[in-house]
Amino acid sequence: MRVQARCFAVLREVAVDRLELELPDGAQLADAWSALAERYPGLAPFRSGVRGARNGAYADWSVPLEDGDAVAFLPPVSGGAACLASLSDGPINVGELEATVQESGYGAVVTFVGRARNRSDDGRTVTELEYEVYPEMAEEVLREIAGEAAERWHAAVAVTHRHGVVPIGEAAVAIVTAAPHRDEAYQANRQVIEAIKDRLPIWKRERFADGSEWKRPGA
User: Fold this and answer.
1) How confident is the model at residue 103 (pLDDT cuts 50, 70, 90)?
2) For residues 142 and 189, is the Cβ–Cβ distance under 8 A?
3) How does DSSP classify residue 118?
4) How many angstroms separate the CA atoms of 139 and 195, rounded?
5) Which residues neighbour 68 within 8 Å (Cβ) at sequence distance 6 or greater?
6) Which CATH architecture has domain 83-217?
7) What is 2-74's CATH superfamily?
8) Pairing mode, if any, of strands 70-74 and 83-88?
9) What are the domain boundaries of the chain?
10) pLDDT tens digit sequence for 148-202
C-alpha cells in the first residue's frame, strides 16, 4: 500500500516536508515512522517526543493503515516538553541540541558539556577516553532518562552521549534543558546527568601517558 507522509517543524528540517511511502499490507503507523527514519536516520533521536497522526487526527502508533492514508509526524507544540536523546560515535554538535529545545519557547536554558580531560582523579596524564556502550539498551534508557526529567520539571530536554574514542578536549556528553524558570532548567539538567551516571549502560576507559589504562562505569 502507499501512504502520504508529512513532517513538521524540526522534523521537516531533518528529513523532508512530505513524501510517499510504500508499506506492506497490514502496516501500522509505527511502521510508517520506521520507514521514514530509515530514509532519514537523523529522525531516530526524536522518536520519544514525536506524536503521530492519521488522516488529520492524532493516532496511536499501533493503529493500522490503509492504502491512500495521510500520516503526519509532529514534534511537541510550542510550550510542550520537547525531548531528544541520542548516542553518537562522532563529535557532538551542542548548537543542534540547543536549537532543539528552542522549539519549546521556554526562556531559561541550561547547557552542560562534559569533556574528556587530560588528568585523572589521581593526577595521571590521560591521552584519550574510550566509551563502550550497549547500544540496543542504551538508546532506550537514555530516552527514558530524558523523558523523566522533561515530565518532572516541565522542561524540554536534549541529550547526546558519545561512544567510542573521545579525544582530549572534545565533548563526551552534552545536555541542554529549557524550562519556564531557571531553577527547573537547572534541576532537569542535573537529574539527567545523575541518572546517566547511575543507569546508562556505558563504560569509560581512560588511557594514560605511561601506556596503562583504567576502565570504570559511568560518564
Assistant:
1) low
2) no
3) S
4) 14
5) 1, 2, 3, 4
6) Alpha-Beta Complex (3.90)
7) Beta-grasp domain (3.10.20.30)
8) unpaired
9) 2-74, 83-217
10) 898 889 899 999 999 999 999 999 999 999 999 999 999 999 999 999 999 999 9
CA dihedral for 100, 155, 38, 6, sign (positive or negative): negative
pTM of the full predicted structure? 0.65
| d(C-alpha 171, C-alpha 131), whole Å | 12
Contact 207, 213 (CB under 8 A): yes
Task: Check: CB of residue 150 under 8 Å from CB of residue 83.
Answer: yes
Residue 215: the pLDDT is 62
Note the helical H segments in the chain: 9-14, 29-39, 94-102, 135-153, 182-199
Reading the block at residue 141, the C-alpha cell is 534508557
Helix 182-199 / helix 135-153 crossing angle, nearest 10 deg:
150
